[in-house]
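call fold(seq) -> C-alpha cells
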Amino acid sequence: MSGQPSGARVRAGSATRGRRAIASYDRYEDAQRAVDSLSDRKFPVQRVAIVGRGVQLVEQVTGRVDVWRAALTGAVQGALVGALFGWLFGLFDWIDPLVSALTLALYGLLWGAVVGAIIGIVSHALTGGRRDFASISGLSAERYEILVDEEVANQAAELLGIDKDDPARDTHP
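ret:
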C-alpha cells in the first residue's frame, strides 16, 4: 500500500476488519473517484479502503522472443546503463579531466550496447526455449468495494448519496 508509513505492514484481513462496505464498483477508477469525492468533502479518508474482490493475475503476451530480439533488448538496456556511467565518469572527472563527459558517455553507450547484446543472447540461450515470449503482468478485479470504518460508515454513505438501508448498496455508474 503506497500511503503507509515506511516499514508498516498490513496483515491479510486487517484492512477489512471493523469496516463496512458502503459501495461497489465495476471499475477501479469509479471507486477512486468516490474516495476522492469524500476527500473533497473533508471526510477522514484514512478510514477508507478500496478492496478488489475476485482478483486475478492477467499476463498479456506482447510478442515472441527470438535470439535477435533478446540481443536487441540487451543492447538497448546495456547502452543506457553504459551511457549513464560514462557520462557520470566524465562529469566528475574520475578518468581524465581532459576527456569530456559526452565522449565518455558515447564510449559507455557503445560498450554497454555490445556487452548488453552478449548478455541478452546468453540469457536467452540459458532459458532453453522454456519462455520464448515477452509479456506484461498485472492484477485485475471483478469489482471494487469501498470499505469504511464502522463508526463513520453512515456518514460516508450519506456524503456519497448512497441509501444506507439498501441491502445491495451497489453503485454502478
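Strands lie at 19-25, 48-53, 56-64, 133-140, 143-149.
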